[in-house]
C-alpha cells in the first residue's frame, strides 16, 4: 500500500507541471509575445581590413534582449528575445549583411550588452531606450589581441497601439557598432602594431668617433694602447686587460601593416675598464687584446643571423630577441674563455696565430673584414 501511494503522488506532481507548462504557453500566445527577428540588409560599407569570425556572448543578463510594453493595452513590460537567441541572431544578421573575406583579419565580437527597455510616456506613447556594448578582439598567432570597445545605443518613441520601430531601431544600433569598428580598422590598419600582419628586421652598426670613454668597433679603427686608460692592476699576473662587450637598441615603425624593426648594434670597449702595464706595450700584445674585441664583433654578427622574422612573435618579439641576446652573451663569454685558454693569454704564439687566422676568416665571411 505504501508503494502504491508513492506512485500516485509522483504522477500528480507530473500532471501539475504539465498543466503549468500549457498555461504558460497559452498565456504567451494570448499576449502575442513573438521573438524579434533581425532583418538582413546590405550595409553601406564593406570591410577591407577584417571579417567577423565569431560572436561570443559575454552578457551578464542573457534572459532577453528586450523588455517591451504590450501593444494595444496596459500591462507590465514583457521579456522578448531575438529569434534563436542574441548570439545566433547576430551571427545570422552579420553573415547575410556583411561580406566575409577570410583572407582579412579575423575579428571576434564579445557582446557585453544588448538591451531594449520601454517605458510609458506622459503623452500616452511608449519610449524605448537601446543600449549596445561590444568589445572587439583579433585572433593572431593563436592568441586573442584586444582592439577596442564600443558603447552606444539609441532612443525611439512609438504609438502605444502598434510597434513597428523596435527591430529597426535595434538593428540600426548594431549597424552603428559595426560601422564604428570598420572606421577604426580602416584608420589603424597600416600603423597600429596590434593589427600588424608581419615583421621585418634590419640591422645597423653603430660607428662613431671614440668619445672620452668608449671605442665602438670599426675595422678601420683598431684598438691602440692609448685606449687602455684604467689604473694598472699591479698585483695581476697579466700584462693587460680589455673589457669589450655588445648591446643593441631597437626602433620600430609600422608601415602598411608590417612592423619594421631596426636593431642598432653596438660593439664597444670601455677605456676606463681597460689597462696595460708599461713594459707590455708591444704590437704582439695589442693584437692579442684586439682579438678579444674581434670575438665580440663575431658573436654580434652571429646574433644577427639568429634573428629570423618568421620565428618572432608579433605580440612579444622583444622577449624573443632578448632571449637570443642572452644566449649570444653566454656564447661571447665562452669564446673569450676558450681563446685565452688555448692561447694561454697570448703566451702560445702558435695558438695565437691559429686564432688570428680563424677570426680573420670568420669575420670576412660575415662581411666585416
From TrEMBL:
State the superkingdom. Answer: Bacteria
Keywords attached to this Swiss-Prot or TrEMBL record, sorted alphabetically, are: Signal
Q: Where is the signal peptide?
A: 1-26
- Provide the protein name: DUF922 domain-containing protein
Q: Which organism is it from?
A: Pontibacter virosus
Amino acid at each position: 500500500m505504501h508503494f502504491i501511494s508513492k506512485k500516485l503522488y509522483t504522477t500528480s506532481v507530473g500532471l501539475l507541471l504539465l498543466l503549468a507548462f500549457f498555461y504558460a504557453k497559452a498565456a504567451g500566445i494570448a499576449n502575442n509575445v513573438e521573438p524579434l527577428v533581425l532583418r538582413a540588409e546590405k550595409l553601406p560599407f564593406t570591410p577591407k581590413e577584417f571579417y567577423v569570425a565569431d560572436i561570443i556572448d559575454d552578457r551578464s543578463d542573457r534572459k532577453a534582449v528586450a523588455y517591451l510594453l504590450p501593444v494595444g493595452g496596459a500591462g507590465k513590460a514583457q521579456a522578448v528575445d531575438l529569434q534563436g537567441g542574441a548570439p545566433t541572431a547576430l551571427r545570422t544578421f552579420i553573415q547575410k549583411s556583411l561580406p566575409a573575406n577570410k583572407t582579412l583579419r579575423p575579428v571576434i565580437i564579445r557582446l557585453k550588452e544588448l538591451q531594449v527597455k520601454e517605458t510609458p510616456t506622459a503623452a500616452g506613447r511608449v519610449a524605448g531606450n537601446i543600449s549596445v556594448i561590444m568589445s572587439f578582439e583579433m585572433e593572431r598567432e593563436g592568441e586573442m589581441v584586444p582592439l577596442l570597445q564600443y558603447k552606444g545605443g539609441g532612443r525611439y518613441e512609438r504609438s502605444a497601439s502598434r510597434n513597428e520601430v523596435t527591430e529597426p531601431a535595434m538593428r540600426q544600433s548594431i549597424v552603428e557598432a559595426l560601422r564604428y569598428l570598420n572606421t577604426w580598422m580602416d584608420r589603424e590598419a597600416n600603423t597600429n602594431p596590434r593589427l600588424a600582419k608581419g615583421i621585418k628586421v634590419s640591422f645597423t652598426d653603430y660607428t662613431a668617433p671614440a668619445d672620452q670613454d668608449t671605442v665602438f668597433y670599426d675595422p678601420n679603427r683598431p684598438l691602440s694602447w692609448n685606449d687602455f686608460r684604467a689604473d694598472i692592476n699591479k698585483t695581476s699576473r697579466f700584462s693587460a686587460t680589455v673589457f669589450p662587450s655588445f648591446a643593441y637598441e631597437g626602433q620600430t615603425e609600422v608601415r602598411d601593416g608590417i612592423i619594421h624593426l631596426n636593431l642598432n648594434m653596438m660593439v664597444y670597449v670601455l677605456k676606463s675598464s681597460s689597462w696595460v702595464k708599461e713594459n707590455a706595450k708591444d704590437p704582439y700584445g695589442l693584437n692579442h687584446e684586439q682579438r678579444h674585441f674581434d670575438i665580440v664583433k663575431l658573436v654580434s654578427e652571429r646574433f644577427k643571423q639568429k634573428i629570423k622574422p618568421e620565428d618572432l612573435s608579433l605580440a612579444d618579439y622583444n622577449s624573443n630577441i632578448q632571449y637570443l641576446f642572452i644566449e649570444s652573451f653566454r656564447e661571447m663569454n665562452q669564446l673569450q674563455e676558450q681563446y685565452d685558454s688555448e692561447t694561454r693569454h697570448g703566451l702560445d704564439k702558435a695558438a695565437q696565430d691559429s686564432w688570428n687566422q680563424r677570426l680573420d676568416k670568420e669575420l670576412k665571411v660575415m662581411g666585416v673584414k
